[in-house]
Amino acid sequence: LVIFIFLLPVFFFQMTKSVTNPEELGGLASQMTSDYGHLALQGRMAAATAEPEEIGFQIRTRVQELGHGCIFLVQKAGALQICPTDSYTKRELIECARAVTEKVSLVLSALQAGNKGTQACITAASAVSGIIADLDTTIMFATAGTLNAENNESFADHR
């Protein structure tokens, strides 16, 4: 899902760059539409599994808003293809691309908000793994006899 989020701004950049070559806009709009379709599918699954429910609602809403922005962007790209010299339409296309880029960042922030619990679990698991590795290392040294006890007790007595 995040990959699609990062790919969309690339298409918007290419789209605004293609203002000078309007014949490229049709292919870019088609690719963006396809990528948004994948994003919407993944966003639906992310929203369904997000906790709490309000995060899921936020993801769903922001993905829908991004979709509306993509629709306007594709419409402006089509309008520019019809009239490639219209400077007003060029400006509108660039403004739509900026608005869509903002909506992409809002989707990304909603996804990150829904990911906090997962990230906390990953961090905790990493900390526990570190503690286990430290204990394994200590056991290895103690078994080898390199950790000397002060009162002639063996590690096996305490293990």
From TrEMBL:
Residues 1-18 form the signal peptide. GO terms for cellular component: cytoplasm; focal adhesion; plasma membrane. PANTHER family: TALIN (PTHR19981), TALIN-2 (PTHR19981:SF34). One of its GO terms (molecular function) is actin filament binding. Pfam families: VBS (PF08913). This is TLN2 protein. Its main location: cytoplasm. GO terms for biological process: actin cytoskeleton organization; cell-cell adhesion. Keywords: Cytoplasm, Signal. Residues 15-116 form the Vinculin-binding site-containing domain. It comes from Turnix velox (Little buttonquail). It is found in: Cytoplasm. The keyword Cytoplasm applies. InterPro entries: Alpha-catenin/vinculin-like_sf, Vinculin-bd_dom. The keyword Cytoplasm applies.
